[in-house]
Write a structure and sequence with these properties.
single chain; mainly beta; four-stranded mixed sheet
Length: 144
């Protein structure tokens, strides 16, 4: 049994298992998940005042580091720009740490009886983030 006794104490191959440095094999540091943008639907009662506001919230999740930007236009549905709402487009910029931005669309009020109408706001060309929900529907609820 002398051979086995030696083996248990490390034997002829001391430390054979841990050759090399572990540092380089661990891989890159663990990064927070990359930022994503999403946008929720919005609705507003048309009202009889001259105009009312429809607010869409664009939310950033994942990493809050770095600047993120995204371009948005409004797109007609059954609601038409100029007669039902004011078309808008622009670029939202999220500075580091900013988690949400609001897109405000002005809805034109009228006294016509008409069905509820919709249009969409879409997100394009995001820089520094991916978009998980790129289209939000704006509903104009008729109250006449």
């Amino acid at each position: 049994g002398e051979f086995y006794d030696d083996y248990e104490e490390g034997g002829p191959f001391p430390n054979a298992q841990i050759s090399g440095s572990l540092g380089s094999e661990v891989g890159p540091p663990i990064l927070p998940p990359p930022p994503t943008l999403s946008m929720g639907d919005a609705s507003v009662v048309e009202g009889n005042r001259s105009s009312t506001q429809l607010k869409f919230t664009v939310s950033r999740s994942g990493s809050t580091q770095g600047k993120v930007s995204v371009y948005y236009p409004t797109v007609d549905g059954t609601a038409r720009a100029k007669s039902d709402y004011n078309a808008a487009s622009g670029t939202l910029v999220f500075q580091p740490g900013v988690l949400s931005q609001t897109i405000t669309i002005t809805v034109q009020s009228d006294r016509k009886r008409e069905p509820n109408e919709t249009f969409t706001v879409e997100l394009f060309n995001a820089v520094g983030a991916s978009v998980t929900d790129a289209v939000a529907t704006g509903k104009i609820l008729n109250d006449d």
